[in-house]
Amino acid sequence: STTSPETTIVSTNTITETSTPTFIFILATPTVPSATPTLGTPDSDFACQIDAQTPPNNSGITKGADFEARWQVTNIGKKVWSSDNVDYRYIRGDKFHKAAIYDLNSSVSPGGKTEIIVAMQAPSTPGTYTTTWRITSGKKQFCTMNLTIVVN
Question: 73 and 112 in contact (C-beta within 8 Å)?
Fold first, then answer.
């Protein structure tokens, strides 16, 4: 008798790695605006923040009375407001100012504050009057300041 060779099957386990997906969660962080002004953005060489105004808009002024309009402003731009070439001037509206253009008393650095003062005289006719002023540097106008008065 002939014997046939036995066949042995050997099983080899091969471990194949599979990739596990990775999830990344990006959560939004709330931003609280700063209480202090941010100085300068790429397109704001000249900018201001008006902090206070006297007299407040719609204040009653006696007809013909002399008074001063005052604005407290902060330079929030990137450039110095040089007293050599920065003025504030009448732009439009009712004309009850004594002069239409004024020089800055002193230069104002970014972050610095100044007071804009305009000598005015209330019109002699009762009514509501509005005037608009701006700070200017050459042909660049910025920092619009409005004043509305009620003449009695």
Answer: no
Distance between start and end Cα atoms, the chain: 138
Three-state DSSP at 133 gives: strand
Is the backbone peptide bond immediately before 33 cis, with ω within 30 degrees of 0? no
* Lowest mean per-residue pLDDT among 11-15, 43-47, 68-72, 131-135: 11-15
* Secondary structure (DSSP) of 59-121: EEE-TT-EEEEEEEEEE-SSS-B-TTTEEEEEEEE---BS-SEEE-SS-B-TT-EEEEEEEEE
pLDDT digits (tens, 9 = 90+) for 46-96: 999 999 999 999 999 999 999 999 999 999 999 999 999 999 999 999 999
Q: Which helix (H) or strand (E) holds 53?
A: strand 48-54
Residue 36 or 125, more confident: 125
